[in-house]
Amino acid sequence: MVLLPSWQAVYALIVASATIASAYRPVQHCKQLGDNGHYSACTSLTQHYNQTTAESDLFVRYHWYKYKDSRNGWHAFALGKQMAGALMFIMYGDPTTPTPEMTISVRSAEGHHPPQLVKDIAIFNRPEAENRIPEVTIITNTFKPYTGAYEQPELSLKPTHVGIAEFIVRGYSKWIGSAVSNVSTAQPMLWSSRYDQDFQEDYSVDRGIEMHAFGLGFGFIFADLLNAETPVPMFGAINELSGHKGLVEIGEPAPPTAAEISAGEFAIKNYRLDPVNADLATSSGDGEHNPFSDHSNTTPSTVPEGHGGGSEAQPNSSSTSDAANSTNQQAAQAAYTIRGKTVRDWLWHLHGFILCCTFFIGYPLGIYLLRSSKQQAAGLSFNYHWTVQALATVGLAIGIFIGYLQSRSISLTHQYVGIFIAFCIGAQMLLGWRHHVKFLSAKRKTWLSKMHIGLGRVVMPLAFVNILSGMKLRHYGWFTMLLVLALAVIEIVFFAVYLRGSHVRRNKMGGAAVAEQLKAQGPGQDDDAEEYFQLAGEDDDLSDLSDGEDAISKKRHQKHEENERLAKLDRV
């Protein structure tokens, strides 16, 4: 290896002696979630200020641990706080081939859509996006047999291969898609994975990918990039036996400690001992390639037509024409998607659609039929009520079952709230049935009625909130979520006014004095003021009563016969 010119050696010596002032702290994120890539990866981050371009470059080293020689699955790392607008680096490939290269696909997404190459997204081709798209230099993208010490503790299994990705995001803080700062102490980032997608030997740069799973399939990182700056361009080391350094997954990292700064000083002073970094950081007088200063291997995120990146980084894409790439993409979509969406994606939409119909149509319709004066006059309100509620509950069960099949773990607030709502609906069914049985025997309201009504008033608004949280998880646009929120508010206000108006109408028609006279006769004597199927316990229509005990007794007798007839119908 040719030595650096003398002036470069002097510069390196000055930089090494100034490491205390640089206060570099290593930043690493390691997460090992299980067999065959339920996200088993480590990421290290450093940034270096490029004097030539007057911009900060982000150096990313990514290790993807694969088990049992698996060819399936993909992993991704992204800059941004949400999928929409994030700058994504999606990796996939076959470690068992003679030349085990790992594809690194630079993508982004608009709203709730599958990730696409940045050049294929319209908003990144507008004039305002000019000079706001970072260039990506891919240094390493390969699989190697794993020879380290890590062993998956639950399975007592070592990885068979490790996918090594090293790339530089030049001028990363100018990214237009989301807020990215080179001085942030808590820069939002994302990770995600799908462990079981079969790529069918098509690892092209624009290959369609299936959606990640909830739970173990994605997560957040908040990295201290301010203190990840190094005075020399370098990739940070990775130790897969440790977890997080200089970042957290739930908020802002703590300030650097003396031990972390000491470790950073040591890393900078000895970075040439890393054979990869030593080779990359050295340039020779005869023009040896130096990717730290030479942009010949740079892959702009807006790749020119007909190219998928640098020839060294993506040989498949550089040797494939636009037509061939389009054909491959269409074949992938035909195998895995319907109009660009995966089957799993459509199932999530079906899950949400069914539950929206259940809570916006089914259960409200059952409540309306119970209080409908027309159905009460026909003696059918209770039968209609429980029939519609039962059908809505069947829809609820189907929607929850689809969500359960789609989820590989129960770890999100949305899931916990959904389980709680399902439990409450089961309790509602039991309370409604027991109230009905008790009312037939006692001819009066019990605590079961109040529990049934109160629980219903809690469950419905909670369900609306959970629907909105599910839409947020699926990255629906704010306008769509605002429409759903408006619909929920309208329903709540409508039923509050409708039920209150129903109660007022009954009081006016029956007369409060008559109701008080009936109740004064003792427990069980006001059954004519309340039909057995009225779960809310409001006064019945007594507008045809005249003052006097004979009229009241006559009406009570008529209502008793009516109740017996309806009870027989209900038992049928």
From TrEMBL:
Where does the record place Polar residues bias? 293-302
Acidic residues: bias regions? 538-550
Q: Which domain of life is it from?
A: Eukaryota
Enumerate the InterPro entries for this protein.
Cellobiose_DH-like_cyt (IPR015920)
From start to end residue, where is composition biased (Low complexity)? Answer: 316-326
The positions making up the signal sequence are: 1-23
**Bias-annotated ranges (Basic and acidic residues):** 559-572
List all membrane-crossing ranges: 346-370, 382-404, 416-433, 454-471, 477-499
Entry keywords, A to Z: Membrane, Signal, Transmembrane, Transmembrane helix
Which SUPFAM superfamilies does UniProt cross-reference here?
A: CBD9-like (SSF49344)
Q: Does the keyword Membrane apply?
A: yes
Region Disordered: which residues?
A: 279-326, 538-572
Q: Which Gene3D superfamilies match?
A: 1.20.120.1770, Cellobiose dehydrogenase, cytochrome domain (2.60.40.1210)
Entry keyword Oxidoreductase: no
Annotated PANTHER family: CYTOCHROME B561 DOMAIN-CONTAINING PROTEIN (PTHR47797:SF3), DEHYDROGENASE, PUTATIVE (AFU_ORTHOLOGUE AFUA_8G05805)-RELATED (PTHR47797)
Can you name this protein?
A: Cytochrome b561 domain-containing protein
**Species lineage:** Eukaryota, Fungi, Dikarya, Ascomycota, Pezizomycotina
